[in-house]
Design a protein that fits this description.
Elements (H helix, E strand, L loop, with lengths): L1 H11 L4 E2 L2 H4 L16 E3 L4 H14 L3 E4 L18 E4 L6 E5 L4 E5 L4 H10 L2 E2 L12 H7 L6 H4 L6 E7 L5 E4 L13 H4 L8 E8 L1 E2 L3 E9 L2 H15 L3 E8 H9 L12 E9 L5 H14 L5 E4 L3 H12 L1 H6 L8 E3 L5 H15 L4 E7 L4 E7 L6 H5 L2 H14 L15 H7 L2 H14 L15
The protein binds flavin-adenine dinucleotide (FAD), (2R)-2-hydroxypentanedioic acid and zinc ion.
Length: 468
């Protein structure tokens, strides 16, 4: 291995091949501290040619590679194994915006560009890059593509997959596939880029992408609402769509326990409602669009129909930021309670109420006092059904129940025709679980694709598909 490290140093510069345990620390653990590994080394190539050379050298030595972007993933996908045998390939030096074409509404960005930098680049030419999530100050284009990230504007713009027009990928043997096309229409055979989107680095390293931009939406109207039930939240979606049409860009749900956590972290709640459910609505339109009136009309109709109990509409940019914090800071606030058993499930919007009402008694019976902290992207049928520990248990005692509790959540979701991973992917944490719910045919197809692209099994092994 000393030989490989030396050759990697010759290829990309010794200062970009990290082996000192102190330098490896932040690349070896995910942001929650839930997944830990020990890399052989961390390599930080600065160009596609360097990524290609690193992957080729590793391939020729039979060494596995774990691509890493902002390391904000939820399922351990960017964390190496703990046996010191895998190279972490960080994309954080590949941060160039290669081109920006406002006329064609496209941007070509390298994989290490941070999502917020991409959004700012789009804004600089009066356009919008619509994928938005609370980790946007750290997560990267390559990570967003590789996890097919969702976020808070999916109901209007779709997930990351919907934004990708073209990709550049370094294949597991080091060859470069230049698929950086910016075409809206291209029916010349298989749409190969789709294989790499959501593949979590198991089929190759994404080095750059052509992404579609949208018209800017400078007119915004934002409200925080309280609701009588989850079924009201689902019905409200139709009312919002009736009144706002395509201006509806966000409809997010927050349960009372989730709200209480954020409020305890200092974010003020503008409502004094005793309700069990709350939500964030945002309409966004072009300059001059009367989104404010549309929001007031929609909420008026929702109050009439007993779907909304109370509402606070942001009157300024700072109030808007405050309302967004009530939703976006839940994840961080829940972390302060200690280990969380996370679930990222989706069902049809009409089944959300059923899911929540089935699970509450089942979880309480399995572990009395367990605390569901439910929130998520209700407009997409996607809930983060996260569990915090009962006061009576210490963290290890609580985590000993993880498998049993997660099986209850996942079984109920699948029984309703849902998915056990709506937007976070599988990583190492959920690979085996997902395979257990898929048919043999589906798992065989996934293995066949992996075998075709990565016959040596060196690209992020054990992620997405469990090792055989
Ligand atoms: P990483 O964590 O570094 O990697 C994720 C996976 O992609 C790994 O398997 C890794 O190997 C692979 N990968 C990374 N870069 C490449 C590349 N260039 N080529 C090939 N493979 C690569 N996610 C959502 O979908 N919606 C949300 O609303 C959301 N909110 C979040 C809020 C918070 C506070 C946090 C911390 C995370 C949130 N996430 C959310 C999860 C996370 O931000 C996303 O999964 C994000 O897309 C990961 O990007 P990253 O650059 O951090 O990737
Ligand atoms: C969100 O929607 C993220 O806030 C994070 O997807 C969810 O931390 C989580 O479980
Ligand atoms: Zn989410």
């Amino acid at each position: 291995m000393t030989d490989l490290i030396a050759r990697l140093g010759e290829a990309i510069g010794a200062s970009h091949v990290l082996t000192d345990p102190h330098d490896l620390a932040s690349y070896s653990v995910d942001w929650r501290g839930a997944y830990r590994g020990t890399p052989l080394a961390v390599v930080r190539p600065g160009s596609t040619a360097e990524v290609s050379e690193v992957v080729r050298l590793a391939h020729d030595s039979g060494v596995a590679i774990v691509p890493q972007g902002g390391n904000t993933g939820m399922c351990g996908g960017a964390v190496p194994s703990d046996d010191g045998s895998q190279l972490v390939l960080s994309l954080n030096r590949m941060r160039a915006i290669r081109s920006l074409d406002a006329g064609s509404a496209t941007i070509t960005a390298e994989a290490g560009v941070v999502l917020q930098e991409l959004q700012s680049a789009a804004e600089s030419v009066g356009m919008l890059f619509p994928v938005s999530l609370a980790a946007e100050g750290s997560c990267t284009v390559g990570g967003n593509i590789s996890t097919n990230a969702g976020g808070t504007a999916v109901l209007r713009y779709g997930m990351m997959r919907a934004q990708v027009l073209g990709l550049e990928v370094v294949l597991p043997d080091g060859r470069v596939w230049d698929g950086l096309r910016s075409l809206r229409k291209d029916n010349t055979g298989l749409d190969l880029k789709q294989l790499f989107i959501g593949a979590e680095g198991t089929l190759g390293v994404v080095t750059a992408a052509v992404l579609a931009l949208q018209p800017a939406t400078p007119s915004r109207a934002t409200a925080w609402v309280s609701l009588p039930s989850v079924s009201a939240a689902a019905s409200l979606l139709s009312v919002l769509r009736e009144h706002a049409g395509d201006w509806l860009s966000t409809w997010e749900l927050v349960s009372r326990p989730a709200l209480e956590l954020v409020v305890a972290h200092g974010v003020p709640d503008p409502l004094t409602s005793e309700a069990d459910w709350f939500g964030l609505v945002e309409l966004a339109g072009p300059a001059g669009a009367d989104v404010g009136s549309a929001l007031e009309d929609a909420l008026g109709a929702a109050v009439e129909a007993d779907l909304v109990l109370d509402a606070a509409i942001a009157g300024s940019a700072s109030q808007r930021t405050g309302l967004w914090s009530l939703r976006e800071r839940v994840s961080e606030a829940q972390e302060s309670l200690g280990p969380t058993i996370k679930h990222d499930v989706s069902v049809a919007i009409s089944s959300l109420d059923d899911l929540v009402s089935r699970l509450a008694p089942a979880l309480e019976a399995a572990l009395p006092g367990v605390r569901p902290v439910i929130y998520g992207h209700v407009g997409d049928g996607n809930l983060h059904y996260n569990l915090s520990r009962p006061a009576s248990l210490d963290p290890d005692e609580f985590l000993a129940h993880a498998a049993q509790l997660s099986t209850l959540v996942h079984d109920a979701t699948v029984a309703l025709g849902g998915s056990i991973s709506a937007e976070h992917g599988l990583g190492s944490g959920k690979a085996a679980t997902a395979a257990s719910y898929k048919s043999d045919v589906e798992v065989d197809l996934m293995r066949a694709v992996k075998q075709a692209l990565d016959p040596a099994g060196l690209m992020n092994p054990g992620k997405v598909l469990p090792l055989q």
